[in-house]
């Protein structure tokens, strides 16, 4: 996909990513299917699954911002390109992670029967873990902590279930990542729009609710919402602090990587 962008070889970030992926696929093609060292293969799988970090995704996004300066590429084209590229990476990483999780321990894997899927993924505990992690990042970079409130409901039980677990079958790592990013957004937006005295009056609410078939999680804040003039740009990879070239985004993990708006009200 990278080679489909004219001038990609003139952009350092795309060159680096292209080189890493080319070497990886070359390794796969050279594997003899009749004589595979599973332990070595597992190590390579883990290395590749972790190779495209969020910092590299940030670089990819910045590279596409450079492409946006070329009149040949519209914002819609670059958004479509990033959609395809990142969905491909997520799918590939999911397969690689599943292989490693299912592989026997003697082959360097984790020998988990269900792989990366947990039949008892606890949404309540996971949301609290994500909030705790995002809180530590927030305190580290701002010295302040927003208030986080939890509501946990189950169909048929009218009252809030407080710390009652919410089990369902899901991939914990993916849900944890989503929650951390949402909460970092809310934390940063809340702190930007409130004085120290107002922070306690603007808590972030995490609502978890479920019935026999579905689990829903909502994150809401009082950070001011999205200006109406932003419109559909909120969903563009080319909108946000990193897309505007802010160096703060690469220096502060709380600031995010500019993939979409940083001050969205969930």
Could you characterize what this model shows?
Strand 4 and strand 5 form a beta hairpin. The chain is globular, with a radius of gyration of 21 Å. It is mostly helical. The protein is built from seven helices and five strands; from the N terminus they run H-H-H-H-E-H-E-E-H-E-E-H. Helix content is 45%, strand content 11%. The chain has two domains: 106 residues; 138 residues, Histidine kinase-like ATPase, C-terminal domain (Heat Shock Protein 90). The C terminus is likely disordered. Helix 1 packs across helix 3, helix 2 runs antiparallel to helix 4 and helix 5 crosses helix 6. The chain has a three-stranded mixed sheet with strand order 2-4-5.
CATH domain class name of the largest domain? Alpha Beta
The radius of gyration over CA amounts to 21 Å
CATH fold-level name of the largest domain: Heat Shock Protein 90
**What is the architecture of the largest domain at the second tier of CATH?**
2-Layer Sandwich
Largest sheet: 3 strands, mixed
Order of helices and strands: HHHHEHEEHEEH
| Poorly predicted regions | 244-251, 260-266
Distance between the termini: 32 Å
Secondary structure tally, helices: 7
Give me the secondary-structure category: mainly alpha
The 3D shape can be described as globular
The helical percent reads 40-55%
Average pLDDT score: 79
In total, the number of domains comes to: 2
Strand arrangement within the widest β-sheet reads: 2-4-5
Q: For this structure, what is the CATH homologous superfamily of the largest domain?
A: Histidine kinase-like ATPase, C-terminal domain
Q: Based on DSSP secondary structure assignment, what is the total number of beta strands? A: 5
Strand percentage lies at 5-15%
């Amino acid at each position: 996909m990278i080679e489909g962008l004219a001038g990609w070889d003139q952009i350092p970030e795309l060159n680096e990513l292209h080189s890493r992926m080319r070497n990886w696929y070359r390794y796969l093609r050279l594997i003899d299917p009749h004589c595979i060292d599973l332990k070595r293969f597992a190590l390579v799988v883990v290395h590749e699954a972790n190779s495209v970090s969020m910092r590299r995704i940030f670089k990819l996004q910045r590279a596409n911002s450079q492409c946006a300066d070329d009149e040949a590429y519209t914002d819609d084209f670059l958004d479509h390109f990033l959609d395809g590229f990142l969905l491909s990476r997520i799918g590939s990483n999911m397969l690689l992670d599943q292989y490693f999780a299912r592989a026997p321990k003697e082959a360097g894997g984790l020998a988990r029967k269900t792989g990366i899927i947990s039949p008892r993924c606890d949404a309540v505990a996971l949301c609290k873990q994500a909030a705790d992690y995002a809180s530590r990042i927030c305190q580290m970079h701002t010295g302040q902590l927003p208030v986080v409130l939890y509501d946990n409901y189950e169909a048929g039980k009218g009252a809030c279930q407080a710390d009652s677990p919410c089990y369902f079958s899901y991939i914990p790592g993916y849900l944890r990542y989503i929650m951390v990013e949402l909460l970092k957004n809310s934390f940063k937006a809340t702190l930007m729009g409130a004085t120290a005295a107002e922070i306690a009056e603007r808590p972030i609410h995490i609502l978890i609710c479920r019935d026999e078939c579905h689990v829903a999680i909502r994150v809401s804040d009082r950070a001011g919402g999205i200006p109406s003039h932003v419109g559909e740009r909120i969903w563009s990879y080319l909108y946000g602090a990193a897309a505007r070239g802010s160096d703060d985004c690469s220096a502060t993990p709380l600031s995010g990587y500019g993939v979409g708006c940083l001050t969205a009200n969930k």
